[in-house]
Amino acid sequence: MLVTVRPTPILGRMAEPLVLGIETSCDETGVALVRGHDLLVDAVASSVDEHARFGGIIPEIASRAHLEAMVPTIERALATADVSLGEVDAIAVTAGPGLVGPLTVGASAAKALAIALDKPLYGVNHVIGHAVVDELVDGPFPERVMALVVSGGHSSLLMIDDTVNVTELGSTLDDAAGEAFDKVGRLLGLPYPGGPHIDRLAREGNPAAIRFPRGLTAPKDQAKHATDFSFSGLKTAVARWVEARQDAGEEIPLADVSASFAEAVADVLTAKTIAAAKAHGVQTLVVGGGFSANSQLRDMAARRCEEAGIELRIPPIRYCTDNGAMIAALGSAVVRRDLPPSSLDIPVDSSMPLTTVLV
Ligand code: KG4
Ligand code: ZN
């Protein structure tokens, strides 16, 4: 198991509550400490390598890994920040969405800490955390931002008011963007997870080599699904294209297929998001989630936001993948707004609605 700890040199204002955040929705055990908008430490233990040979996350393996990593990761985070448990003012934890077993390990740890320390518990939404983590990097959100959260599990377009009020504008109807990359990676024979491998290959290929379909962009779909995404038709189109070449005994031009596929995904994500931002008169776009590491998406979003006069905020990649900082950041935001703490018997919710920021 790989454990990394990232101390940060920033020390927070002492007046603000110190929030401990715990994230366990998938295969990363994340523990972070945030005071106000300042990140004191972000410690992550990942079980990703244990899943690679299965080609996907095995929830039971992830749960066991969280159980083993939880106490050492909390201890490392506290030691690195030179903070004692007694100094923690509030505990924030991912209550959903995610895998039930992994979520339960994190929620149990958070509840135990809240009881032992007699401090409030805040069960918060993982997907919203992917957007709000940007406050630690780029400062407080303006009154209204649009957020595109893209990862292996989610592709969601959100309107966020005052950081904690969320409206869901759209989402994927089938595969998430990262999931589509991982599936195409598998059919191209790349290791799991395929996303970063396709990204790397795509940088050497021609994005205009093959014109793959752009899901839900036809006029009839735009009427009903202007802010929704669909990537399964694209994934099937790539599979058909590859199969046809294989049947003809031709070599597959991996770089061109990757570049053309990545271009189609980035095109749809950015075109629909920027159109929605313009339609709602929103000046700031936040992009988060593991898939926002994707260079084709980053490049196209930067270019198109500049053309549209929209401020683009994408946190550094280490805050885009699952981590504790995103949960501590969202916890800090709800504490600052005096929202009521969660009950100690909150359940985890694998399909927590995105409009539920705090349970
Ligand atoms: O947020 P995350 O760490 O976990 C989930 O909540 O899903 O996102 C992981 C996903 C995987 O599907 C992975 O293949 C994809 O993000 N990913 C990428 C890149 N880096 C990670 N996809 C494309 N290009 C990348 N550079
Ligand atoms: Zn995530």
Structural notes for this entry:
Helix 6 crosses helix 7 (194-202), helix 6 packs parallel to helix 9 (232-247) and helix 7 (194-202) packs across helix 10 (254-279). It contains twelve helices and eleven strands. Residues 9-13 have low confidence and may be disordered. It is globular, with a radius of gyration of 20 Å. Helix 3 links the parallel strand 5 (90-96) and strand 6 (121-125). It has a six-stranded mixed sheet with strand order 1-4-3-2-5-6, sandwiched between helices. Strands 9-8-7-10-11 form a five-stranded mixed sheet, sandwiched between helices. It has helices spanning 48-51, 59-81, 100-117, 126-132, 134-138, 177-187, 194-202, 219-225, 232-247, 254-279, 295-308, 324-336; strands spanning 2-7, 18-23, 28-35, 38-46, 90-96, 121-125, 144-150, 155-161, 165-171, 284-288, 311-313. The two termini are 31 Å apart. By secondary structure, it is an alpha/beta fold. It folds into two domains: 2-133 and 320-336, Nucleotidyltransferase, domain 5 (2-Layer Sandwich), CATH 3.30.420.40; 140-314, Nucleotidyltransferase, domain 5 (2-Layer Sandwich), CATH 3.30.420.40. Bound molecules: 5'-O-[(R)-(carboxyoxy)(hydroxy)phosphoryl]adenosine (KG4) and zinc ion.
